[in-house]
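Issue 218. Parser rejects a valid record. Input:
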Amino acid sequence: MSLDYLEFEKPIAELEERILELQRLSDDRSMNFDEEIETMREKNRSLTADIFSKLSAWQITQIARHPLRPYTLDYIERIVSDFQEVHGDRMYADDPAIVAGLGKIGSRSVAIIGHQKGRDTKERTRRNFGMPRPEGYRKSQRVMQLASRFGLPVVTLIDTAGAYPGVGAEERGQSEAIARSLEVMASVETPVVSVVIGEGGSGGALAIGVCDHLLMLEYAVYSVISPEGCASILWKSAEKASDAAEAMKMTTKDLSAQGLVDEVIQEPLGGAHRDYDSAAESIERHITLALDKLEASPKEEMLENRYQRLMSLGRFDRKSA
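Output the parser choked on:
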């Protein structure tokens, strides 16, 4: 499988191609290059670690959008058993951009909700590139309310450029659906854990991101607007996206420093797309630990802590107002 290397990964791609060539020579000529291959693999690991330790905000954004990055259904396949998907909002239609349903993580029954992008052109079109319409958020509300009624914790996986801004979505109440989702999540009477697995964009991400504990994968991003959108507003040019990404403080490092993220989940070397199983295992472990801690608290205390967490976000400087 081609790893679809990004521009800054070219030195890694060249080294890995040389490793593959040595492996082909070993197979074709019955020659043993195991020692040379292992030496080059170690060099490759060192090079990858060095490159990924110096990534810019824009490069991290590119990784978060990587076409081979695992999506919600990839993680559900690996960490959720007995998954039963729920379809439709009982008002208008089903929105494939949001996957929602019930299942088990370990022995714990949970409700799980997440954005789902597509792998090929046909699926990307069907799932609207992971940008939900109002019916997607109303479907998620339906599952959250079901979870609250039956005492099931809620797990959400965030990965969207934002809510779909089309005319039809606006006509069907996109802003109301997002606002209502925020209200429902704030009042769910069971623990809520959210994980930003890729791109967390604008209110479309926040609509399933009001939680008791926020996790982010190491190379995920979370922001109020895309870098391209920000650049178009500030500089009238999307070509300034890299400058915007740096200024927006949208990476895990910057968000952690601001107290907006509770935990960062380390990814496999080179990103989650290089090892789905390892990434899924880390996510499952962090979700389980977070739910263990949250479920140990009385419900009233958990809800009060959620309220205080929300109220603590952001700062207001009266002197400059």
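Fixed in the parser; the record now loads. Residues 9-54 form one domain.
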